[in-house]
Queue: 2 jobs
Job 1
Amino acid sequence: MYERLSIVTRSQERLEDITTRVNDVLRSHEVNEGICYLFVPHTTAGIMVNENADPHLATDFLEHMRALVPASEHFRHAEGNSHAHIKAALVGHSLVIPVEDGQLTLGRWQGVFLAEFDGPQERTVVISMQSTSPITREEPVTRAPRRR
Amino acid sequence: MYERLSIVTRSQERLEDITTRVNDVLRSHEVNEGICYLFVPHTTAGIMVNENADPHLATDFLEHMRALVPASEHFRHAEGNSHAHIKAALVGHSLVIPVEDGQLTLGRWQGVFLAEFDGPQERTVVISMQSTSPITREEPVTRAPRRR
Amino acid sequence: MYERLSIVTRSQERLEDITTRVNDVLRSHEVNEGICYLFVPHTTAGIMVNENADPHLATDFLEHMRALVPASEHFRHAEGNSHAHIKAALVGHSLVIPVEDGQLTLGRWQGVFLAEFDGPQERTVVISMQSTSPITREEPVTRAPRRR
């Protein structure tokens, strides 16, 4: 099962919280228990987990990444966005999260974020899902025999 | 198949080796061949692979992370642990490792570590497993049809 | 389904593009739709996505990583390659990419790279594949019943 999320990022560097949208996709495919694979098919954006309660944390993260990989650095790549490629590589492009009770098994303070380093622009997240017990929550949950 | 490991980290910043415990979980579920998914549901801890032979490497890693993301930096997040969130995001929260012969396919010098950046405290690692040939090693291994 | 790629890296620090070789493995196993898991069983090499069009980007990345984690730093690990371990940990050891139409669902500018930080040497990438519709592209594509 595949789905592509389209995300319009709102500034040059930004963490866009996509947690609700990913959980909505799981619900629409009735994935109750399984694995959710998130992949970002871009070179200047990544995917990561961060706290979603205090927005200052996103600001702190992006500012510190700018300090670690300044855009002003002398890079060879002529387009002037080498820093965005490096930041995206450090954040990473794939994230795999187990699914239980129809939701990502995120911790209480966790959210899933598209990390934009060269926006604003329209981005895609490829969502793949594997369901290991595609029962809906309305059904009585009996102990199903494990198939694998 | 899911299991949650509970790990009591022993200092503020520390790499806790959980390799043996993860392999024990695989064994208890008789996962002989398949995939092991590790996910850390915390915002100030991550999961990573590192060498497990020389403990100096963990010290070098943690000290260098402190140099890259100093706690003393001026951050906005009021709790004073922004540095721990940034370090955890750089390390990452998910790790996926193939399983063969009932064990993680780790290299000779590799171990799996919970990376604690805001301890000491009790942490959780969510372990999901998919078995593609749930045969026990006692059975004669014939070429079983792949179930996927 | 497992396969091990052998990669001879060509310098001390280098991003080796393995995209074509991974897609060849998917084709040889007739994985048309599914998930591809890549794992590097080494402590001084990692796996990552980066742009594959402009080779300057690999140079920029490696040079900037050298600036962030200099080999000259005073580290405790006696072998003198602590910097390579730290770089590999930051890049990461596992990467999971969906497969569609018999290929990794990479973006237009993306390639998959083994990130060598302590070469040149022979390296391995463990490739695991899960096929969710193991049809070949020659067959007429009918809507197969989902098995999970």
Job 2
Amino acid sequence: METIDIRTTTREELIDITQLVRSTIRNAGVQSGLACIFAPHTTAALTLQENTDPNVKRDLLAHLRTLVPRDAGFDNDEENTDAHIKSTLVGATLTVLVEGGKPLLGHWQAVFFCEFDGPRQRKVHVRVLA
Amino acid sequence: METIDIRTTTREELIDITQLVRSTIRNAGVQSGLACIFAPHTTAALTLQENTDPNVKRDLLAHLRTLVPRDAGFDNDEENTDAHIKSTLVGATLTVLVEGGKPLLGHWQAVFFCEFDGPRQRKVHVRVLA
Amino acid sequence: METIDIRTTTREELIDITQLVRSTIRNAGVQSGLACIFAPHTTAALTLQENTDPNVKRDLLAHLRTLVPRDAGFDNDEENTDAHIKSTLVGATLTVLVEGGKPLLGHWQAVFFCEFDGPRQRKVHVRVLA
């Protein structure tokens, strides 16, 4: 298992960690299997999404804010309930297939760490199984 | 594989099953690998979320009701279409890493069974791979 | 690993691929393990849902359109931003348990490919681990 350290720099952002995941899978030396990617946080998430057009990232974060506004009158008074709910909707785990020692992603797919309550120091664990 | 039996007691609730998942992983005797947690239901789900502040659970269920109201004019007349949609949004499967014979969860992360159409007798299957 | 080819015929549809996933798992010859199902697309997804009442599929697609309208004023001008966001909310990967050479699904659970920006030629990869 390897752990990727991520320093987020603003409250909400999508960070492309595809190259870091690629390195981790290469280091594991597994040709064919699967990789489980796990964010040990309750106000962040992981998703597969396009990274060619930066508007996609901006639109995704903006629309999540529309679906889960920060000031929606929540009982929890830590002012990050929106981030908890987004984490559950997007999900904190991803499983990708490994083929030829690489993640088998679609042409447009990148692995994104989703920060919903930054800036913070974050971690992502990756385990590769043959 | 082990199966956890869960008796839900109301229409919508989040039940912390972290200790049950921990026992299952310990029983499997796997030191290092991953655990796949699976809810064989279409009106329930599984999520990782904080269990320190009970407001987080209440806010999550309340906000899901806002996003998917029970009386949104659905075609299906079984009156549980909202529960089906929440199940798809939250997801019925989780994969967590296993390290030292334990689930490698973040400090605030607990595993929750999400009931969206109870009360019912429910099951969660857990398989651990080395 | 096996790849399932799917031809979608309209912009948004749910296609039951349970039988195809069953065949793939049978072909793998694994009695007991797990199957990772992966859609290499950023405008499609995979979900487990009921396939007895066709209204459930229709209600799910209609409600996703309500949550993420196509014309919500997105920056991305490709007119499929809604499909990207739905893909992230529903998720492009599923992990199911395998027992007795079959996917261990609940009585009402079927595996659905979710097309959000068709019609297109699509793929789903399935890998089975013992």
